[in-house]
Amino acid sequence: MKNLNCRTWNSIATGIMIAGLIAGGGLTGQDSAIAATHHSASSGQPMPVGDIPGWHQIFTDDFETNVPVGGFSGCDASKGRCSGLPSDVQAKWFAYPDGWPDTSKNGTYYPSKVMSIANGMMNLHLHTENGMHMVSAPVPILPGATGSGGGLLHGRYVIRFQATSVPGYKTAWLLWPDSEVWPRDGEIDFPEGDLNSTIGAFMHRQNGTSGGDQDGYSTQSTYTSWHTAVIEWLPDRLTLILDGQTIGNSTDRIPNTPMHWVIQTETSLSGVTPSDDAVGDVQIDWVAVYVPSDTFAPAPAPTSVPIPTPTPAPVSPTSDPTAAPVSIIIPPTTSTNSGAGDLQAILAELQQLELKITLLLQEMSAKLGSAKSGNSTQVPSAGEGATGTAISPSPVPTPTPPHSIVPVLRPHPFPTVSPCKGEFNCS
User: Fold this and answer.
1) pTM to 2 decimals?
2) CA pair distance 83, 366, nearest whole angstrom
């Protein structure tokens, strides 16, 4: 029986705000055509950047910010973040907290002693300290997640990786249902396998009645060379691709509820317990996540708000019927390329209008005051000299800058994780 991911995501935490963003062996043709390199890809394959036919890219990481061992600390499941991380990494990654048991109970998740980022790669250093076999399960935080547990409904998940052939450890990188109802809502596992064996994959079917209600796929590929694994999950099919070759294609009872992605790396379920001197590393060069293009709804293009220019009207009453009428000329609005820019332009114009109205009211007040006092004071027109009693000019208020347009961000739901789930009774 394959790994049934001994943990559950029990409740939803609030307060985390997310602003929200395959080749030479691993990229498909459409990916390699648009691949771009942000660092010298140690794996020899650059990370794909941008949309591809049928898919809209929402998340990438090629690990440009270094994080030493110890940086993945303070991981709090109630907040869905690791406080020890730099802010840019904290916005993208969570990990199962220190001290949680893994599926077999032979290992312990310990990101503060296992995980690091250096030289453009995330590294999981699997080892034993004081008899504790330390493993880790990174969780990418995906912008625009729609599921109650931070998951998506359908997507394309791509990861570039290699690992040491070390006995007693495995990968079970998976999509797990936000609903926590298993086996009913299925599960997708790829790549899955012991690090000293070959890479396989599984899809637990929708409305499953047991852990064995699944499609299974195998390969002859081992973990010791660089690979690119792709999960393409759509309503009517699941396609699993390793190094550009389809290794599995399921079309019946595809999971149909939101799922979250977990890079779950742990001790083996094959009955082999790691020895205390077994040491190995899992290296991840980059990851990329997409949603189907037909489900991605970009914000509608902003439209400018026309402000009509009023017909000039004389100012009344006035003590001098020959005084020039005063009119307000409102500059036309212009469209910008972004909704925020458009609103800023409109706000700036409205503030200029407010200033002009203030000056006009001050001018009218001065004229009315002059008429009541019997003075024959008038405001000179351009090019004329002032006559009568001088009017001290009112101070001109300093225009305030346009209001900043701050996006309203939806609290990103993130599950509170507890360690145990499935047929493995972790109580």
Assistant:
1) 0.67
2) 61
